[in-house]
Amino acid sequence: MSGSVEDERLRVQQLRALRRRWLRDQELSPREPVLPPRKLGPVATFWERFLQPGDPWRQQVHKFYQGGRFVMLRVLLPAWAITYYLKYYVLKSPHGVVMTNPRIFPGDKILETGEIMPPLRDELHKHH
Asked: Which of 90, 121, 116, 86 is nearest to 104 (CA)?
């Protein structure tokens, strides 16, 4: 009986030692990981050099981005939303809808000019 308990203790001790060694092996040294050097294409190389941290160009690009973001979020989108609401929910006739003029018949008076529409000419030749 005592032999199986001692074997079990030895087995547990060996497992603990293996786990400790495995955990130590998982720690990376300062030289790891060893990766192959990155090969960048011409466009990636340009952007790598162009947008270095602290570079004045990078700061200018960031300022331009922030300005565009401000204009888009604080000016254009609210203006669009207000215009949409006014156009489709408030105004009686939506923008861009063409209203038809009243029909004008011979003898009617045109309000803008005061002119009277002359009668239609009779067609002299019949097609059918």
From this structure: 116
* pTM, rounded to two decimals: 0.38
Cross-strand pairs, 116: 109
* Dihedrals phi, psi of 92, to nearest 5 degrees: -70, -45
What span, in angstroms and rounded, lies between the C-alpha atoms of 65 and 46? 19
- CA–CA separation, 14 and 7 (whole Å): 10
pLDDT in tens, 82-91: 999 988 888 7
3-state SS of 58-121 is: HHHHHHHHHHHHHHHHHHHHHHHHHHHHHHHHHCCCCCCCCCCCCCCCCCCECCCCCCECCCCC
Instruction: Write the DSSP assignment of 14-43 as a string of letters.
Output: HHHHHHHHHHHHHSPPTT-S--PPP---HH
Q: Which two tokens stand for residue 68?
A: 């565009």
Residue 3, amino acid: G
Tell me which residues of the chain have a pLDDT lower than 50: none
